[in-house]
Specification:
heterotrimer; A mainly alpha (275); B alpha+beta (446); C mainly alpha (302); B: 446 residues; alpha+beta; D-Maltodextrin-Binding Protein, domain 2; six-stranded mixed sheet; 19 helices; 9 strands; 9% strand; globular; C: 302 residues; mainly alpha; MetI-like fold; 2 strands; 75% helix
């Protein structure tokens, strides 16, 4: 259903979006400025000269691409694992009745309450003892446990909002519980699933403290710690390189998310849900 | 990735696809494991990992590996902020690196006292104790008369940087030597758009570290040589008074200044003086070449001519964790880092900021063959000499016992808080200093 | 398939259902049980000891950590500061989040790109975000002061981060900027599934856009907002990186929240036991809030 574009709303919305994304714009501009233009006391928006040397340096002189690949693998794996587990769990919480259901749900959230700082050392010790020190797998495990509670609760709330009519109808027609789940519930829960997947991906993409402690070798190091430890030290910040690296870290995600946004909405409006 | 389509095929295929993806993801993730290399692997940690420095390290590693085919060295960057967390976990899980460089001296003393480091006297001997600048390794001497670490570079962290052109324009002939002269100079040079100084007043380590220097330049100390709390004394009040009086010559944002902002304030030309190490040279050359010929540095002024200069050197060091495997190879590599050809390369990666600790280097033509070092010989020479006789909270003077709690004291922000309370909040100095003294005593006892 | 296996097992319908339900939540429980329970219990155990962080060696001190914690003014002051920060930034996050979600739900031009750009603050690394904002806020070369002065709104640079209440307000705003996309995405996803028919019915009844929002949209959003507010409250309460890097807890202790103390105790002062005590206290505060909040939400929904 192609509606005509809402021009007035666009005129209100886009300026706000640009203000919100202004730091990205600023980072972009700074990353193509020569170092000599960085700290002018009369800051200018447009660079006097444009250079791509910082991007070249980041890509050639640093293990940036390896870090990027690691982050991608890490975030994607975590997302897949978390979504698989939490989709099932959320369905269980909203459509089934068994003793201890609410307590279980609350306990799951309870694990989420403790600040991660005090969990690091015991967690690291545990991972070392099973031989996973310094691997991406250890990060996937750690991030899964942090993302799981909120993914579960978020998906639970999305699924709770799906009326039971269609499922019941499908089961009356002879579908099994799981069949109804896959054919009826999942499609309707898709916006919620994609949102939760986005959050999980970003959480895994951005986590710093755990990546710092659990992984020390460049082979498994993700972008957060890689870029930070390389370009930021107590006495010196490599500003231009940092801006270039940050743009490189952000722009691919923007493109990927823009792509997914399209599929967040196509065809899942009122759809087959009776009013 | 394919756009998602509503299920027309059996649901099993989609679930299988998800499973395969998860499996592939897990397999790929797991493949990030350590390699199946049969060589002896040495792990080297350092927070100094900027791209230029990385290049110099790689060169040293490559040459070493070529000369020692059975050994492989892996460099792993750590961070100045994050190393306590990384180390705690590494020590607890016995996942120790073989060699750690560029951490401050007081970290080394702290870890050694807890039995976490190997003494490095063998390495010093291998390089030759007389090769080092006089006294440069004294700060690492331990209670049991060994060395917990050795110097790998020096940094004169709190030099007074100044703009010769601005001093001249204000009619000041020579850079200030006392606090009164400094205050007067800032007053004369300050005008709309240009501040006198870039001192830090933020709630962070820089403020603590810099202010400790000011207490010493007033003739005082934080602890007595016996490590009794001595901050509650007249020089501290003098230093606080002076620091307060300098607030008006610093930018408004100085109350949140840390290293980066303070450095940039001077480099960008917003302040007439700065307080920093040799990074200024490289940053000015890259970010504000227009003032490159107008900058110079001198030892930071003291309260009066009678009080000797005191410079903060965090003494970046090389240490060897205890319990890491392959001790002999580690010591060999440690000594190899000081081979002049490669040592000079490391120094060139941060010219002026990481200064040589070996006697032969400052006059070595290879060392001098660097644009910045060649351009600012007087400043580099001054910083090299000053840093070698510098101090830090870990050992405030040569007469002081090593202070093993220096790290915790800085991390507690006790001194930064003192500065903020008295200067920003205008609280009365005496009670504030008394509270700080009490906190310091507690920290020493803990 | 597990449900078909259960069907053949001969159990009653309800029992089969309950077992299937348990089976579906089993992976969650297993993962959390295997990975997080040990560190959780470890942390609680640590809080009763005095532990030197680098070696994790310590000795039992019973309730001494808690006594010191509750007796010192530091904990209570930090609790108040944390509460102020949480409430402030959460309010902004929800208000801006819902507003943006409503706007982005409309059929604006280049909608996918707009939605993606709005997500940008959330997936930018906190370290980089703070560095950029500190630069923007800088009174010497930052563009915020420059623009405000050029527009004549202020005539001298404002000290955004080094004075109170500016520092608290600044971190609230930057926190809102950083995390409001979470609210946007969750609300947007829910908005997609509100049946158009409801709006039609309201329109036919003569309701304008504002009453359509309050009578149709808001009730439909209640469930998601309840969860989002709960999750964001917990997350904001625990937030460390943003505040630590932005102000370090200063000026003095104006923005010193509990997570900053936990980190300082753990890795600055090397007192892992005390850090654990603070962490457990934080957890108890959040637990009380969480239980009270959920109970109220359940009553409101019933």
């Amino acid at each position: 259903m192609k509606k005509r574009p809402a021009w007035i709303v666009s005129l209100i919305t886009w300026p706000i979006v640009l203000v919100i994304a202004f730091p990205l714009l600023w980072m972009l501009i700074t990353s193509v400025k020569p170092a000599a233009e960085l700290f002018s006391t009369s800051p200018t928006l447009l660079p006097k000269a444009i250079t791509f040397e910082h991007y070249a340096r980041v890509l050639q002189d640093t293990p940036f691409l390896q870090y990027f690949a690691n982050s991608m693998i890490l975030a994607t794996s975590t997302t897949v694992v978390v979504i698989s587990i939490s989709v099932l769990g959320a369905y269980s919480l909203v459509r089934f009745a068994y003793p201890g259901r609410e307590t279980l749900a609350s306990l799951v959230l309870f694990t989420y309450l403790l600040p991660s700082v005090v969990l690091i050392s015991p967690l690291y010790l545990m991972l070392v003892s099973i031989g996973l020190a310094n691997t991406l797998a250890s990060l996937v495990i750690a991030y899964t446990t942090f993302a799981l509670p909120y993914a579960l609760w978020l998906l639970r709330s999305f699924m709770a909002g799906i009326p039971q009519d269609l499922e019941s109808a499908a089961m009356v027609d002879g579908a099994s519980r799981m069949g109804a789940f896959v054919d009826v519930v999942l499609p309707q829960a898709l916006p919620g699933i994609i949102s939760t997947a986005l959050f999980t991906f970003i959480l895994a993409w951005n986590e710093y403290l755990y990546a710092l402690v659990l992984v020390n070798s460049d082979e498994a190091r993700p972008l957060t710690t890689g870029v930070m430890t390389m370009l930021i030290s107590a006495f010196n910040i490599e500003w231009s390189l940092l801006m270039a690296a940050s743009v490189l870290m952000s722009v691919p995600l923007i493109i990927i998310f823009a792509f997914f946004q399209r599929h967040l909405t196509s065809g899942f409006g009122a759809g087959g849900v009776k009013g | 990735m394919e756009p998602w389509r509503p299920p027309v095929s059996s649901p099993i295929s989609r679930r299988t696809a998800l499973g395969v993806l998860a499996g592939a993801g897990a397999a790929a993730a797991l493949s990030g494991c350590g390699s199946s290399d049969s060589r002896t692997t040495l792990r080297w940690w350092s927070p100094q990992a900027a791209p230029d420095q990385l290049k110099s390290y790689k060169a040293r590693i490559a040459a070493f590996e070529a000369a020692n085919p059975g050994i492989r060295v892996v460099f792993e960057p750590t961070s100045d902020e994050g190393y306590p967390a990384q180390f705690a976990s590494a020590f607890a899980a016995k996942q120790l690196p073989n060699i750690v460089t560029h951490l401050p001296s007081f970290a080394a003393q702290n870890y050694y006292a807890e039995g976490l480091l190997e003494p490095v006297d063998d390495v010093i001997k291998a390089i030759g104790a007389t090769q080092f600048l006089d006294g440069t390794n004294d700060i690492y001497r331990t209670a049991d008369n060994q060395h917990c670490a050795l110097a790998i570079g020096n940094t004169a962290v709190d030099m007074l940087w100044y703009r010769k052109d601005l001093l001249q324009a204000a009619g000041i002939a020579a850079p200030p030597k006392t606090w009164d002269e400094l205050r007067l100079a800032c007053q004369k040079m300050q005008k709309p758009g240009l501040y006198g100084a870039a001192l830090p007043y933020g709630m962070n380590a820089m403020t603590s570290l810099i202010f400790i220097g000011f207490i010493h330049r007033a003739g005082g100390q934080i602890f007595t040589p016996d490590l009794q709390v001595a901050i509650d004394s007249q020089p501290t009040y003098d230093a606080l008074e002076f620091y307060r009086s300098m607030r008006e010559f610093c930018p408004a944002g100085a109350s949140n200044f840390s290293w980066g902002e303070s450095l940039t304030a001077f480099v960008s030309g917003a302040t007439a003086t700065g307080i920093y190490g040799g990074r200024v040279l490289a940053n000015v050359a890259a970010q504000n070449p227009a003032i490159a010929d107008a900058i110079s540095c001198t030892v930071y002024p003291t309260m009066s001519a009678a009080i000797p200069a005191w410079t903060f050197n965090d003494f970046p060091c090389l240490m060897i964790p205890k319990g890491a495997p392959h001790l002999a190879e580690t010591k060999a590599f440690a000594a190899a880092l000081y081979q002049p050809e490669y040592y000079i390369q490391q120094l060139h990666a941060a010219p002026g900021h990481v200064l040589p600790v070996l006697k032969s280097v400052p006059t070595d033509p290879r060392y001098q063959a660097n644009t910045l070092i060649a351009r600012y010989p007087a400043e580099i020479d001054l910083m090299t000499r000053t840093a070698a006789t510098g101090h830090n909270l870990g050992q405030e003077t040569s007469a002081h016992r090593p202070n093993l709690k220096a790290n915790e004291i800085i991390a507690s922000n006790a001194i930064a808080e003192l500065v903020q309370r008295v200067v920003l909040n205008n609280e009365a100095p005496k009670p504030a200093v008394a509270v700080t003294a009490k906190r310091l005593a507690e920290l020493m006892r803990a | 398939m597990p449900d078909i296996a259960l069907q053949r097992s001969g159990l009653s319908r309800e029992r089969r259902d309950a077992l299937l339900g348990l089976l579906l939540i089993a992976p969650t429980v297993l993962v959390l049980g295997a990975v997080i329970v040990y560190p959780l219990l470890s942390a609680i155990a640590l809080s009763f000891q005095s532990v030197y962080t680098p070696t994790l060696e310590g000795h039992w001190v019973g309730l001494a950590n808690y006594r010191e914690l509750l007796g010192s003014g530091g904990f209570w002051a930090a609790l108040l500061t944390t509460a102020i920060w949480t409430v402030g930034t959460l309010t902004l996050q929800v208000l801006i989040g819902v507003a943006m979600a409503l706007l982005l739900h409309q059929n604006i031009i280049f909608r996918s790109l707009a939605r993606s750009l709005v997500l940008f603050p959330y997936f930018l690394s906190t370290v980089v975000a703070v560095l950029v904002w500190r630069w923007l806020f800088n009174d010497l070369y930052g563009i915020v002061n420059h623009a405000l002065m050029a527009a004549g709104i202020i005539d001298a640079p404002v000290n955004w981060l080094g004075a109170m209440p500016n520092a608290m307000l600044s971190i609230m705003v930057v926190g809102a900027w950083k995390f409001f996309p979470f609210v946007v995405i969750a609300v947007l996803a829910r908005l997609q599934t509100i049946p158009e028919a409801l709006y039609e019915a309201a329109r036919i009844d003569g309701a304008g856009p504002i009453s359509r929002f309050f009578d149709v949209t808001l009730p439909q959003l209640r469930d998601v907002l309840t969860i989002v507010i709960l999750l964001r409250t917990v997350w904001d309460f625990k937030e460390f990186d943003l505040i630590y890097l932005m102000t370090g807890g200063g000026p003095v202790n104006g923005t010193r929240t509990l997570p900053l103390i936990v980190y300082q105790q753990a890795f600055g002062l090397n007192q892992m036991g005390m850090a654990a005590a603070y962490a457990v206290s934080m957890m108890l505060v959040m637990l009380v809030f969480m239980l009270a909040y959920l109970q109220r939400a359940r009553k409101a929904a019933a």
